[in-house]
Amino acid sequence: MELLGRLTWVRRSPRARLGAPARQFSTPRLDLALAKTPPPASLDANFTCFNQNCGKTFSLGEVRYRCACEKNALLDVTHDYEKIKQAMSPSDWRALFDRRAGSTLWPYGSGVWSKKEWILPHIDNENIVSMFEGNSNLFWAERFGKTLGLSELWIKQCGLSHTASFKDLGMTVLVSQVNHMRKTGQAEIAAVGCASTGDTSAALAAYCAAAGIPCIVVLPRGKITTAQLLQPIANGAIVLNIDTDFDGCMKLIQEIVGEVPIYLANSLNSLRIEGQKSAALEILQQFDWEVPDWVVVPSGNLGNIYAFWKGFNMAFELGLVNKVPRMVVAQAHNANPLYRAYRDGWTNFAPIKAEATVASAIQIGDPVSIDRAIYALNRSDGIVEEANEDEIMDISARADMTGMFTCPHTGVGLAVVEKLRQKGTIDRDDRVIVVSTAHGLKFTQSKVAYHEGKLKDVISKHANQPINLPDKSSALIDALRTRIKL
Length: 486
Ligand SMILES: C[S@@+](CC[C@H](N)C(=O)[O-])C[C@H]1O[C@@H](n2cnc3c(N)ncnc32)[C@H](O)[C@@H]1O
Ligand SMILES: C[S@@+](CC[C@H](N)C(=O)[O-])C[C@H]1O[C@@H](n2cnc3c(N)ncnc32)[C@H](O)[C@@H]1O
Ligand SMILES: Cc1ncc(COP(=O)(O)O)c(C=O)c1O
Description:
Blueprint: H1 2-17, H2 28-34, E1 45-49, E2 57-58, E3 75-79, H3 81-87, H4 90-100, H5 116-119, E4 138-140, H6 142-147, E5 152-157, H7 167-183, E6 191-195, H8 199-211, E7 215-220, H9 226-234, E8 238-242, H10 246-259, E9 262-264, H11 270-276, H12 278-286, E10 294-298, H13 303-317, E11 326-332, H14 337-343, H15 370-378, E12 383-387, H16 389-400, H17 408-422, E13 431-436, H18 444-451, H19 473-481
Parallel strand pairs: 5-13, 6-7, 6-9, 7-8, 10-11, 10-13, 11-12
Antiparallel strand pairs: 1-2, 1-3, 4-5
Helix pairs in contact: 7-8, 7-11, 8-9, 11-13, 12-13, 13-15, 16-17
The chain binds S-adenosylmethionine (2 copies) and pyridoxal-5'-phosphate.
The site of one S-adenosylmethionine (SAM) has 7 residues, from strand 4.
Family: Belongs to the threonine synthase family.
Subunit structure: Homodimer.
InterPro entries: Cys_Synth/Cystath_Beta-Synth (IPR050214), Thr_synthase-like (IPR004450), TrpB-like_PALP (IPR001926), TrpB-like_PALP_sf (IPR036052)
């Protein structure tokens, strides 16, 4: 309670300092200035069974992760497209989103909450837990793109975020809904919990700490980076380190949430997908609502590929754009169950035991969102491609030498682009987006090992070592002359 009180104080402080009156969260006058026609309050969203033949719906206020049908199917948050169309024309929706992006207005300046009516329309603005996430840069990899024979390679830098991965986008939505349910007394939720390969737990811990909600994270011991482990520790989460892999942690957390009032925050929970889809809408905004040709998403549990497709498809179905890009799932060879199924013509999907990979956040062999991913790929003429350890680290090093600082997952995406370009699947003039899912600074261990030439199965062709020298200018100049013409 005390922390919740403090959050209110944080939000009030800028206005208080300016001597402004007490905070009005949903500021209708400002919203009017941002959108000539404010959307009606009647928009709403529900959980719907992902199995199209079932169609059961449930309130978002219910604690529920799967349908009640015999298939135990996943859920999807659904919106009434007719109501959205009636509320405003496509050009007015585009204008509203463009005006809000990056503005100072709570909560609409957030990249996620700037699309509130398409995400969680019903939630009270004062119950939203936001760190003004999203609005991440779309980096034009001009020099690096040329080396791959591409004129338009763009990197959506989702790692430029509060906890340094795309997980913030989904977690603001999930934790806001939990906060809303706790505040309105809709559900008894003692804590929120997740299994994680490191980034989900970091995001959950931060958003829970901001809201004053207890947080539990279940981690595969020794299989995440030091930076990722430190994040939930610093944010005061209860950190459970288990001698298993991510798939094992996922099973454990699902068993736990069935028995005690802990709310599940993995992307099995479709609320996460709703926030993550906002990054697709941002990409459209960043191209002035022109649709790119390819969007490549490094994937593990397969929630994010569906989230991106859903964002693009929503803009298409609602008439804001005229097509959906081709979606590409990029997997690490050591954790490639979807790639195997795709390669075999979708005849059979079988979970695997994922092996260790430098792309440790996607070391997942039994992806929960398998049905969502196949659905998205089938509807976007999608592709699955893989990259091995050497390919991941080699391309990451080459990209870094053109000014990036890639995490290994972004390396998987880049390696896949290189392969598809070499095969001629991607054309020279195609507009290609690689989703950078996390910040490279969370994954320094593998980068250091690469430059020291110590990584298993990797040839460090582009290793760059610091040159240790005595405290003498002549020694510096001699050393420089061995590297550049002076
Ligand atoms: C300085 S306040 C200005 C007041 C604002 N016009 C309003 O809605 O009342 C807005 C800025 O604070 C930021 N911000 C970040 N976290 C916030 C939070 N938790 N609550 C409110 N604003 C936040 C955003 O960067 C935003 O640009
Ligand atoms: C995709 S371009 C769209 C073209 C743009 N309207 C123009 O001025 O030509 C705009 C986006 O690219 C981004 N951007 C990042 N690095 C850039 C760079 N080096 N050159 C151009 N745009 C860059 C920003 O995120 C920006 O939102
Ligand atoms: C950095 C990073 N990239 C990619 C992924 C994969 O996303 P998804 O599990 O939704 O496929 C994750 C998390 O699992 C991640 O942390």
